[in-house]
Write a structure and sequence with these properties.
This protein has 456 residues and is an alpha/beta fold. The protein contains ten helices and 21 strands. A nine-stranded mixed β-sheet has the order 6-5-7-8-4-9-10-11-12. Strands 15-16-14-13-17-20-21 form a seven-stranded mixed β-sheet. Strand 1 and strand 2 form a beta hairpin. Helix 8 crosses helix 10. It binds thymidine-5'-diphosphate (TYD) and magnesium ion (MG). Thymidine-5'-diphosphate binds next to helix 2 and helix 3.
């Protein structure tokens, strides 16, 4: 190998550089650069084509193209359909990323089972497991139609040939990090291999009108390129996340050329595969303690979907000079900031108290609308007075202790009402957004002090 043909890639974001550096200038990750042979093949318009005078590509008038809006195929899972924007679009490339062991293969096998009811031919290609291992998983999930075919293969040229021969309507590639092309000298899972392989699959999807699902493992370190390297190439990016120890999983859309992003789907991992959780709020609130201090129910928005969550706080006197603070599921700095607001505006001596804040159920959220619930949970724990039951709280808290407006108020209140809450504490300035709401008391508050008077 000529020394001159080596380049450095960031494992995290795919940034290419001629020299090594400790921190990636693009994604700011540390120690992410690896040396790889430069890919000989280049993708792009000129790749692999002889330039002759007669080009096959001819422009088409915009009005003559049909939008293909009706061509959506349901995956048989309402939660997944919602994240995809109403089902899969033929000819699209969908990346499903997530930590190893989170349930990506299980999800896609279930999708294949459902799609097999609607589509004549499906191909599940695994580079990770043997046919027997896949069969073992399949037998946990249920019965399958004849139209789903399995293949164990990692050579992309062979895969391309098989797909062109078998002409399936949908293909699953599990996982992109195990696929390789012989022409590229770097190892499977390297940035160049992963990129080039995705390029080939992209072309296959578009030219043949096949929906291709790509599994990509999120890698913290090591020599395997993560799915972020591919995000810009594919049509749809879904991340499957969740606490491995908790049974619920969240499928989050972070990019979607055929629908809105920020939609989520909630699933639960069970003995016989993933089950959809149609009512996540109910699920998240199950096991909420009754009459305990430091527990407040908030309403957060996940995309267009409201979700009720329990915010918990435990405040106790610190044994050392420096108070300890931890935040699980929330931004640590935000927690510190809000505690400073309480100290200054409500004269609470919180600097001599430890505080542990948690969102029950292991959800992670970064929404300012959770502020008011957090603040009230902290005060409730500090005073050891429970917040009245059947009350939900949302609103952003500003630096002077004011409660500021948030969006999608109607949906949040609606969700609370649906789950039997009888009072919603919300920003006063947002009250106007709620229309025709009966059966739930609306308490508009302008400051944290107002809110305190109502709930504690
Ligand atoms: P898997 O789909 O193999 O994860 P990934 O492809 O993302 O690496 O899922 C692995 C986990 O799911 C494994 O710990 C076993 C568990 N599981 C169940 O709990 N129930 C099931 O029905 C199946 C198939 C798997
Ligand atoms: Mg897997």
């Amino acid at each position: 190998m000529k020394k001159g043909s080596m380049v450095f890639f960031c494992q995290n974001c795919g940034y290419e550089s001629a020299k090594w550096s400790g921190q990636c200038p693009a994604c700011h990750g540390w120690n992410t650069f690896v040396e790889e042979p430069k890919a000989e093949k280049r993708m792009g318009v000129t790749a692999g084509k002889k330039r002759t005078g007669s080009s096959k590509s001819s422009p088409v008038s915009i009005n003559r193209i049909s939008s293909g809006e009706q061509e959506r195929i349901s995956t048989g899972m309402a939660e997944l359909d919602q994240v995809l924007g109403g089902g899969i679009v033929p000819g699209s490339l969908i990346l499903v990323g997530g930590d190893p062991g989170i349930g990506k293969s299980t999800l896609l096998l279930q999708v294949c089972r459902n799609l097999a009811e609607r589509l004549p031919d499906l191909l599940y290609i695994s580079g990770e497991e043997s046919l027997q291992q896949i069969k073992l998983r399949a037998s946990r999930i249920g019965s399958f139609r004849e139209s789903l075919k399995l293949l164990c293969e990692t050579n992309l040229a062979d895969i391309e040939e098989t797909v062109l021969r078998e002409k399936p309507k949908a293909v699953v590639i599990d996982s992109i990090q195990t696929m390789y092309q012989e022409e590229i000298s770097s190892a499977p899972g390297s940035v160049s291999q992963v990129r080039e392989a995705t390029g080939v699959l992209m072309r296959l999807a578009k030219e043949q009108g096949i929906t291709i699902f790509i599994v990509g493992h999120v890698t913290k370190e090591g020599t395997v390129a993560g799915p972020r390297v591919l995000e810009h190439m594919v049509d749809t990016v879904l991340y499957f996340e969740g606490d491995r120890h908790a049974s619920y999983r969240i499928l989050r859309g972070v990019k979607n050329r055929f629908g809105s992003t920020n939609e989520i789907g909630v699933f639960e991992m069970q003995e016989d595969g993933l089950r959809e959780v149609a009512n996540p709020s109910e699920y998240m609130l199950s096991g909420k303690p009754e009459g305990a201090s430091g527990s407040v129910v908030a309403c957060a928005m996940e995309g267009t979907r409201p979700m009720l969550l329990e915010v918990q706080a435990l405040v106790c006197r610190t044994n050392f000079g420096l108070p300890r603070r931890t935040a699980a599921g929330m931004d640590y700095n935000r927690v510190n900031l809000l505690m400073a607001v309480l100290e200054k505006r409500l004269n609470l001596p919180l600097s001599s108290y430890d505080a542990y804040v948690n969102i029950a159920g292991g959800m992670r959220l970064n929404e300012p609308a959770m502020d008011l619930a957090l603040v009230l949970a902290v005060i409730s724990s500090y005073k050891d007075i429970p917040v009245s039951e059947k009350t939900i709280v949302f609103g952003e808290v500003g630096l002077s202790g004011e409660v500021r407006a948030v969006n999608m108020v109607q949906q949040r209140v609606q969700e609370a009402k649906k789950l039997g809450f009888t009072r919603a504490v919300l920003p006063k300035s947002s009250l106007g957004q709620v229309k025709n709401m009966t059966g739930i008391e609306l308490a508009g508050v302008a400051t944290v002090r107002d809110a305190l008077r109502i709930v504690i």
